[in-house]
Amino acid sequence: MNSYEELSLYIDGAFIRGDGRHEQDVFDPATGNVIGRLPHATQADLDRALAAAQRAFESWRTVSPVEKGAILRKVGELSRAKEIGRNITLDQGKPLAEAVGEVMRCADHCDWHAEECRRIYGRVIPPRLPNVRQFVLREPIGVCAAFTPWNFPYNQAIRKIAAAIGAGCTIIIKGPEDSPSAVVAIARLFHEAGLPPGVLNVVWGVPHEVSEYLISSPIVRKISFTGSVPVGKQLAALAGNHMKRITMELGGHSPVIVCDDADIERAATMLAASKFTNAGQVCVSPTRFYIQEKAWDRFMARFTEATRGIKVGAGIEPGTTMGPLAHAKRVTAMAEFVQDAAERGARIEVGGERLGQTGNFFAPTILSAPPDDAKIMQHEPFGPIAACVPFKELDEAIRRANSLPYGLSSYAFTGSSKNALRIQNGIEAGMVNINHFGQALPETPFGGIKDSGMGSEGGTETFDGYLVTKFVTQMD
Fold first, then answer.
1. Model's pTM, two decimal places?
2. 5, 102, 249, 380: which is the annotated catalytic residue?
3. DSSP 431
């Protein structure tokens, strides 16, 4: 508990330290101090990981789903949430309670995938001739390459790993070099749980170099990526050149619609807590707030009050409810969003500035009435800024919510079933949350539409990207 994770590659069942490889510094975003050194994979390491994953697939694909489920379930039981959570706080910055909670929730993902992998069914198709039998098999696609982000380093990795392994695939994962401890910890848990060598491999390096090498390899049959829209499009194009299956969970710019018939105080309180979780560095973070005019004053009063109560500080310190941004460049980006909005007539209700000179701290910020062409209304801030604007009629709010090319998550609060139906039918998003935050559970699909990606993780859809369909017809 007193030291940071010992960072390494994990290839073919072995943890590999630097040993002359290039290593990069890992920083604590609250202090700027170096807390670890992360070894980068050489081309020989990547080739070894590819070969190990291919070799392991030949046997893992036929392993009983009961045995696969037992390993997944054991990983959930081994979670060591406090230790792993502390290291996530050190390299990513989020408050300790959030980091520990992230790890604990992922035990549920392991358990759910352990059960659901036992229900990967095919089907029998009634034949047209009496001496014909025809049926459909669902088989693992093969070796998968996964690329995961730094904002939820444990959660995003475990979802891909559990789905791939449960489906009978093997996987090479490149996690986030800026917050790597969680993925190394996951490798240790699977290692201890008895996962055969080569089924899971962890590599690190210069992101575009590793991704291009793995995606171009004929061994890799499936790519899963969570990250920004521009990078996702680049990887999708590369995968398309090689006709490879992809799952993409990309950026969002989540709209919130608060109708005047909603429980306004409750909505404002819930949204303040959700907006500033992980300092707003959440792909599904509520960002564009559309508040009906009659509810505007009540909502803004409660929303600003709750935001002012947020305690910003190092995530490891007791009582902190919002930590630093993960990267120093994001502090500059937040200031630019605020400056642009203010120059266009928006009012800064709360925050709007950097906090201190040490660490990557930016104040929780609320902007009121920025115009639709303001940068904050067009581009995902991925930080602790909420933009609030009034609206008159619900159709107007839905139109403005759908005006961007994003379509990941969305939120609405209303006391009317009629409004709720109009919203769920009208909003263009992969996920619609009405009167609560009910997404990202293991049993529910998580994914977006439009520029926000394709495919889903979670729910019964979780294995779709890792399975191929084989039709068999036989005549006696």
1. 0.97
2. 249
3. E
